[in-house]
Amino acid sequence: MYDLFVLGQLMDESMSGYLMRQILQQIVGRQRKISFGMIYPLFKRLNEAGYITLDDRTDVGKRSKKVATITDRGRTRFKELMVGKVPLNPNLEFTYSVKFRNFHLVEPKLRQEILNEYKDYLLENQESLHQQVIDMKKTPISAPDLENAKWVISLKQVQMKAALQWVDSSLKKFTE
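Now predict its structure.
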């Protein structure tokens, strides 16, 4: 999951672990804490795989810093990750958002494929929410609990509808 993010960032420019952490923290928001203890082992692993190189650089009067640069092998891996299907797991939304952030690095056809894959996921989710409401009515729970559950599902349905509209609008934008 983070491999795609790091490689995508490095496709644009080399950067230090400090800057990489700052950018990633902005993306994930307050929900997750991104530490240097996560970034530097990730850099090390990507370096050992041959996807990036790490150079120690020292600015005048400052501490040295590790600067990562993507390799040709890393560029190939980035493209593989962009083309690959997003697994159904708790990081799915984050993975799609990283893919969307990297749209400037891929061909329009791949952008459309990614958006259509995301749309299929949203439509399946929408159907699943509809089925949840049907199944809930068969579950022996109190009337107030049932109403609250349906109310919460209605929020998810509104979010899903907005996401589908965003995808349709994006597909039009990228096909023009």
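Helices lie at 2-12, 17-28, 36-48, 72-83, 92-101, 108-137, 143-175.
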